[in-house]
Amino acid sequence: MYRPHPFSWVPADGQRHATTDPKPRHGYHGVVVRTLCLKEVTVDNSDIGWLWPTCPSCNTGAHELAGVPEAGEDAE
Question: Are 43 and 17 in contact (CB under 8 A)?
Fold first, then answer.
């Protein structure tokens, strides 16, 4: 399955988290994943879940994996 980055975003535990776990063929809904912030959470792929705030630790980790600075970071 194509993923432009080595992580995927998943809504879980009241936030949008990022995970490097392989994406199941049927999607992540109801699956327990390990997040970039080192939590194990059950994915809630509901419409409202995608509106939850982004986990700051996962956001930092995702930017590092993508090789893209976070908004507001000065380029070195």
Answer: no
Per-residue pLDDT reduced to its tens digit, 52-64: 999 999 999 999 9
Strands (E), 5-67: 8-12, 15-19, 32-34, 40-42
Cβ(36)–Cβ(15) below 8 Å: no
Contact between 11 and 45 under an 8 Å Cβ cutoff? The reply is: yes
**Among 18-22, 49-53, 71-75, the least confident range:** 71-75
- Domain regions of the chain by residue span: 8-66
Give Cβ neighbours of residue 41 (< 8 Å, ≥ 6 apart). 10, 12, 13, 17, 32, 33, 35
For residue 18, the SS3 value is strand
Of 22, 28, 26, residue with least CA distance to 7: 22
